[in-house]
Design a protein that fits this description.
Shape: globular
Bound molecules: pyridoxal-5'-phosphate
Strand order of the largest sheet: 2-8-7-6-5-3-4
Number of strands: 15
């Protein structure tokens, strides 16, 4: 398997790999030591000199976080905001969009549960129409169907790049090209793809992009980010404003700030923000291209080997696939598989069917086990994991 970075160096820099086999990177990845140190050092500074004073002391480093996030997605820092998670980032943009009754929003079967719940509320509030784009033969969003719906007219395309419940990587740049051709606002959820595959807003041609810190970026929990392009800054008023997002200009007036930080709030998790910056710098330093290749290769190997076990079925779809592997063991409940593996210090999670109503039930699938690999995982871990799943499948069939 090709690695253009030192696997032993990244494992040495990841304290958690000595403790657990961690295949729950789509939940929350093991952070590198530099992220842990950055967060702890700032918390220590806050406890030593005071929270406001600590923030003032590191203000240049806090500003640099926006530059780092900008580098991650190919944007200028004034287009980046740091928010508490990907969901709130997405909400701040989409709930602030000036929808009118009858506006059509195009989404896909892979859309994230919270985004769909929000769309349903927006449908109730504003009378928007939600149109689900079908999958193509590979199981990715069908570009022909998307184009046909764009021709019929739409206000927004809102899709997820890489779903929470499978290996699929949707053709986000091709979607962006079509959205641009039809002058349609494009919101892209990169929560699972940030840190997993290269991202460039010029190639993706999205107006809004939302992500989280703790997953493939290996940042701290409770951190997220948002890119707002020129059209987003022009069109979207955040649903909530405060003294950070706007200025109180006279007793009865206020002015919303011009940059993407209008989507933030004043009080924030400073240690986490610095940790997010450290995680992005670490990822960019190793290189997203080589780590993306390794994640895809490890994912493909895990998929193949799990799929060759009698009684195990792998359920990932898509022409391009990443590090998230979903599977079922015949006759064994996904939660039981998850718990049995956990008892052996092997971390996975489950993908509940109720969290993927446009996809899993549509394919006749129940809740699945989700094993998500990162570039710091190694072949020995895959061997051990496959053997443990094989044992569970065998025990069941005895
Ligand atoms: C595709 C996708 N979008 C959004 C989210 C929400 O992210 P957060 O928990 O940071 O709000 C998740 C979380 O699993 C996700 O997988």
């Amino acid at each position: 398997m090709p690695t253009e970075f030192s696997l032993s160096a990244v494992r040495d820099a990841t304290p958690g790999v000595d403790e657990v086999l961690h295949f729950n990177n789509a939940g929350s990845a093991l952070p590198p030591q530099i992220v842990l140190d950055t967060v702890v050092d700032h918390l220590t500074l806050e406890a030593t000199i005071g929270g406001y004073e600590a923030a003032a002391e590191v203000s240049a480093r806090l500003d640099a976080v926006y530059v780092s996030l900008g580098h991650l997605v190919g944007a200028a820092p004034e287009h980046m905001a740091v928010v508490e998670n990907a969901t709130r980032a997405w909400d701040m943009a989409v709930y602030g969009y000036p929808f009118e009754r009858g506006d059509r929003v195009l989404t896909s079967r892979a859309e994230y549960v919270s985004n769909v719940i929000a769309m349903l509320q927006l449908r109730k509030r504003h009378g928007i129409e939600i149109v689900v784009i079908e999958d193509d033969v590979h199981g990715q969003l069908d570009l022909d169907h998307l184009e046909a719906e764009l021709v019929r007219g739409a206000s927004m395309v809102a899709i997820t790049h890489a779903p929470t419940n499978g290996g699929l990587i949707n053709p986000a740049a091709a979607v962006g090209a079509l959205a641009e051709q039809h002058d349609t606002f494009y919101v892209l959820d990169v929560c699972q793809s940030a840190g997993q595959v290269p991202l460039d807003v010029d190639e993706l041609r999205c107006d809004v992009l939302t992500g989280t810190g703790r997953k493939y970026l290996r940042g701290p929990r409770g951190t997220g980010f948002l890119y707002a392009g020129p059209r987003a800054l022009e069109r979207i008023e955040p649903p909530f404003l405060d003294l950070h997002a706007a200025e109180w200009t006279s007793e009865s007036t206020y002015e919303i700030r011009a940059d993407a930080r209008r989507f933030e709030n004043w009080e924030t998790y400073y240690a986490g923000k610095l940790g997010l910056g450290a995680a992005v710098d670490y990822a960019l330093d190793i290189g997203i291209e080589p780590t993306a290749a390794r994640i895809a290769a490890l994912g493909a190997r895990l998929r193949d080997e799990l799929g060759s076990i009698d009684g195990v079925e792998v359920h990932d779809k898509g022409a391009t696939r990443g590090g998230i592997v979903t599977f079922a063991v015949d006759g064994v409940d996904a939660e039981h598989v998850h718990r049995s593996l956990l008892e052996q210090r092997m971390n996975t999670s489950t993908s509940p069917a109720g969290h993927a109503r446009l996809d899993l039930p549509h394919r006749g699938l129940p809740t699945l086990v989700r094993a998500s690999v990162h570039y710091y995982n190694d072949d020995e871990e895959i061997d051990r994991f496959v053997a443990a799943v094989g044992e569970l499948a065998l025990t069941r069939s005895r």
